């Protein structure tokens, strides 16, 4: 079989597989770039501290308003939220709509792909700040 014919046959064989790949795959590197919007107020990773906002190590699975040493608003402490991907996505789009009375002053991230990427970046860090 001629090389071009083989290439065409392989292309036809694998095209459906390539097209079936999820279009919304999370991109940790893009999430790290998005993190730059957060880092003025938050830290993450080993040695992270509370600054304007609480450190975000181990965010997913944590109850809102529970980071030791951070002074949360009553609204945040009493929100009853446990952070997961869906709650975080809703919150980061418009923090004050999700938790009226929160101290967080942030315009939000509206793009779902950017939120998914940021989520992937944040999920790398365990409670101790080490990458999982």
Molecular structure report:
This protein is an all-alpha fold. It has one domain (23-122): Cytochrome c-like domain (Cytochrome Bc1 Complex, Chain D, domain 2, Orthogonal Bundle). 40% of the residues lie in helices and 0% in strands. The longest helix is centred in the first third of the chain and has 17 residues, at 3-19. It is globular, with a radius of gyration of 20 Å. Residues 1-20 form the signal peptide. This is C-type cytochrome.
Outline, from the CA principal axes? globular
Which topology does CATH recognise? Cytochrome Bc1 Complex, Chain D, domain 2
Q: Quote the average pLDDT.
A: 88
Q: What percentage of the residues does DSSP assign to strands (E)?
A: under 5%
Weakly predicted, low-confidence segments: 7-23
* CATH class wording: Mainly Alpha
Pfam family, one: Cytochrom_C
Keywords: Electron transport, Heme, Iron, Metal-binding, Signal, Transport
Domain Cytochrome c: 26-126
InterPro entries: Cyt_c-like_dom, Cyt_c-like_dom_sf, Cyt_c_1A/1B
What's the gist of this structure?
Residues 1-20 form the signal peptide. With 132 residues, the protein is mainly alpha-helical. The chain is built from six helices and no strands.
Helix-strand blueprint:
Elements: H1 3-19, H2 28-35, H3 74-77, H4 85-93, H5 95-98, H6 112-122
Helix pairs in contact: 2-6, 4-6
Features:
132 residues; iron; 40% helix; mainly alpha; electron transport; heme; 6 helices; Cytochrome Bc1 Complex, Chain D, domain 2
């Amino acid at each position: 079989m001629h090389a071009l014919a083989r290439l065409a046959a392989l292309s036809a064989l694998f095209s459906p597989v390539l097209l079936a790949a999820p279009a919304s795959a999370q991109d940790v590197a893009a999430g790290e770039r998005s993190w730059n919007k957060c880092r003025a107020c938050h830290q993450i990773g080993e040695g992270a501290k509370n600054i304007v906002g609480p450190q975000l190590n181990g965010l997913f699975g944590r109850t809102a308003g529970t980071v030791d040493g951070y002074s949360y608003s009553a609204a945040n402490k009493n929100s009853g939220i446990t952070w997961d991907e869906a709650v975080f996505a809703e919150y980061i789009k418009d923090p004050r709509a999700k938790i009226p009375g929160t101290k967080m002053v942030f315009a939000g991230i509206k793009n779902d792909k950017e939120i998914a990427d940021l989520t992937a970046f944040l999920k790398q860090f365990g409670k101790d700040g080490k990458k999982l």
